[in-house]
Amino acid sequence: MKIADLLEGRVATWSNLISMMRVLLAPTIACALYYERMTGDIWYLKAAVIVYSVVAISDFIDGILARWLRQVSRLGQFLDPVADKCVILIVAVTLYYFRQFPLWMIIVILIRDVLHIIAGLYLFYTHDIQVRPSIAGKCMVVIMGLCGLIYIVNPLHTFAGYTLQQISLLSVLISIIVSSISNWRIYSKIYFTRTR
Questions:
Q1: Domains of the chain
Q2: pTM of the model
Q3: Cα Rg for the chain, rounded, in angstroms?
Q4: Measuring CA to CA, which residue among 15, 134, 26, 18 is closest to residue 76?
């Protein structure tokens, strides 16, 4: 299997455009938080929340739109998880600089994503199998999205002595572990049986 095979069928679809837009919009969150820090103007925080919400909602819209318009393509199935990984990394680095998001969590996310990309590419190139996101993986993206929103808004609430940021980090860590176990079980099944 070659990368050129991803270009079979329709390429210029609304869902693919939305996936690309999601990646291009993510850096504007960093710009908004930068200007919020420099000026102290809460309008920039609101802008960051709005852009972040648009990026998060578009993650759900692109898949629904692809099925509704019958524009599901191999490229789209490849672009969507890649766009998710790019957005998560951009937002995590942004929050590291502007909201004290822990570096260790960025490293955990990077390790997980690199391992999954290697496994996915191996199956794609050697067995002509394109791995799709699991339910656990999709849940993990949602939990990461909520964690990112909590860090952007930066609330001061605590529960049982723990901040919302700490609780959301624990939720992300648990979801990464669960989704990784789920995905590796899927990858193993695909590798040994050639079916999903």
A1: 3-193 (1.20.120)
A2: 0.83
A3: 18
A4: 15
Dump the DSSP string for 117-154.
Answer: HHHHHHHHHHH---PPPPHHHHHHHHHHHHHHHHHHH-
Per-residue tokens: 135: 């339910």
CB 88 within 8 A of CB 142: no
Residue-wise pLDDT tens digits, 112-133: 988 888 887 777 777 666 666 6
- 26-41 residue pLDDT tens: 999 999 999 999 999 9
Residues 6+ apart with CB under 8 A from 126: 1
Cα end-to-end span (Å), the chain: 18
Q: Which amino acid is at 85?
A: K
Number of H helices, E strands in the chain: 6, 2
- Supply 107's token pair: 């490293």
The HSE-up count of residue 126 (CA atoms within 13 Å, CB side) is: 10
| Per-residue b or e along 21-55, where b marks 16 or more CB atoms closer than 10 Å to that residue's CB | ebbebbebbbebbebbeeeeeeebbebbeebbeeb
